[in-house]
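hi! just following up on the protien thing from before. the input was this:
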Amino acid sequence: MEMLYLAIALFLLLTLVAGLWRVLRGPTSADRMLAAQLFGTTAVACVLLLAQAFERPMLRDVALIFALLAAVTAVAFVRRAWAAGDQNDAVK
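and the predicted 3d structure came back as:
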């Protein structure tokens, strides 16, 4: 069963190549931020799979921290983008 977990974790890591492409070539900053969110979600999933495969429950705490950091990052981006949008509206 642990080989299945490791295989799924490897597959998830391979999907990050598509996300990396979007981060580098995304037409807008929102596209880049969504790709960065993909990194956070995939990291949480990979760490949870590794915790289960290697029977290390403390890795679940690491996954929770990654999830919190991803959420904080998204909120920070939205606040910054919203403030930049307000400034652009004031200039018009």
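The chain has a mean pLDDT of 87.
DSSP finds three helices and no strands in the chain.
cheers
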